Amino acid sequence: MTAIEMQQLVIHGRRVVGGKAEGEALVTRETISGWGGINERDGTIIERRHELVGQSFAGKILVFPGAKGSSGWSAFFHMARLNGVCPKAMIFTRMTTKMALGAVVTRVPAMTDCDLDPLEVIETGDWVSIDADAGTITVRKGGRRARQA
Amino acid sequence: MQLTDYEKAMLDGANGAAKARAMDLLLRYGQAVGAERLVETRNVAGAFNASTPSIQAIVDKGFDAVYSELNLDSDEVVEIPRVAVPTTQLITGIDNDNWRLQGVDESLVKMQRASEAFLGERGINMCATCTPYQVGNVPLMGEHCAWMESSAVIYCNSVLGARTNVEGKESTGAAALTGRIPYWGYHLPENRFGTHRVNVTIDVDDMMDWGLLGYYVGEIVQEHKPVLSGRLHHPNLIKLKHFGAAAASSGGVEMYHIPGVTPEARTMEEAFGPHRPQQVLHFGEVERREAWEKLQSATDRRVDFIMLGCPHNAIEQVELVAHLLRGRKIHPDVALWVHTPRAIKEIARRAGYLATIEAAGGVIMSDTCPAISRRLPEGVRVIATDSAKQAHYLPAIAKLQGWFGSVRQCVDAALTGEWQGGL
């Protein structure tokens, strides 16, 4: 096994919303608020004390525990999709109605109930391919550049 | 998911395209969350009103298009029929009377009113408040509801013993047309027991302390179900309204128990049912101070905006503000907005509280709040509020400094222009 292959791992989980996507991971161990927590016009986190404050999830594979706060969660991620700044996919660990409905209306591949804790094994910048229908997440540690090296 | 014959027929379009799109959304949502079936509901509270410039492009296509896109997640524009079950409009973005003070463009007021006319013709009740339980929508114990508004959901589950998850704009839109919502989460009795025990070791009596307790507990338990006991003086609607709003802001609490107070927990044993507490927390002086400090985002003591009434004030709270302001004038550099449901504003008008508050230079706002509307008086830099929820959200949304304190501290700041509050 080459060093590069060793840097790749596969996680199995449950489909929440079907589809495939790949991209760079943005990982947080903190739950995210929709209404009052994100700017739906540029996809940035705006919650004052959030570890990702000021960073955008637009075009990223968002890896996070789940949703918190206002019931406007789905509406804000819905608007982020209409504004073209939603994440490319969502991987989360804690199921709630806010999270499920938000993932459904964001209409991006989404998974949960993973056999490895995605918050432990995926880091920001890793290159992640998700096939939600097959229930697999492939993680290339260190990002796409590492794969091409 | 298992559907009844009636639900299958709706999905297949037997009752029109709108109900078919609504069933499609409920099916996608139910499968995502892992529900086995839907449950009947006859009590929906959602957000249907069009009042923000961000959706102007959709409004231009008509209000059927607004409902189709934002309340059904449907790419196809469908004609929206009368709602199938009683449905309440929650808070909106514009005060229909005080919109000029909010700095709202008249074209948006017209948009909101046209939207309300469309929704009214379809049977959506314009309660226009985050607290429907204060203006006549008081579900019974065990009633299956489909409510949005995290502060109303936690009140509905915990204080009323009715059953709802935190729904969203799209799921309430679908529920209103079908009378169905996924049977999952808080609809199932086995999911309603407590998970975390909270021992309160200091006296928690006034509204500010209930807010601090909620803010502290919510951040720790996240979306779990705390059971509170200890030195809690018997609360009332106002205190639990604040406690719940705070716990649903710092975390995602949708249900809690207070043995002897809330209806599903006559005793500690009943609160936990077959389970044992996963964790035992304490709320004492140190924790109270920690919550208070987290809520302060201001350093400048010169305040220019006082926001009271989040969640919307009860009539007793409006009376207290009127009492504190009677015969006095607020500082000329400060704006004071007191938020209450429109129906309660009418009571305040009749009792003279409205005239008293206005004579002091304050305003009673209805239908909306600054966090929802994202509108404040011009040039505001530093706010003060009696609401943990508003102190949590508004500084982030409006990029300003915020103080949190008691109603009295906030009214004092309105009178002097200076924040002197503290623990």
Structural account:
The complex is a heterodimer of chains A (149) and B (423). By secondary structure, chain A is α/β, with parallel strands linked by helices. Chain A is built from five helices and twelve strands. In chain A, the strands form three sheets. Chain A has an eight-stranded mixed beta sheet. In chain A, strands 4-8 form a two-stranded parallel ribbon. In chain A, helix 2 runs parallel beside helix 3 (97-106). Chain A is globular, with a radius of gyration of 14 Å. Chain A starts with a helix and ends with a helix. Chain B is an alpha/beta fold and 423 residues long. Chain B folds into three domains: 5-189, Aconitase, domain 3; 193-294, Aconitase, Domain 2; 296-416, Aconitase, domain 3 (2-Layer Sandwich), CATH 3.30.499. Chain B contains 18 helices and 14 strands. In chain B, strand 13, helix 17 (388-398) and strand 14 (401-404) form a beta-alpha-beta unit. In chain B, helix 4 packs across helix 8. The longest helix of chain B is centred in the N-terminal third of the chain and has 17 residues, at 17-33. Chain B is globular and about 65 Å long. The model of chain B has no long low-confidence stretch (mean pLDDT 97).
Quick synopsis:
The complex is a heterodimer of chains A (149) and B (423). Chain A is of the alpha/beta class and 149 residues long.
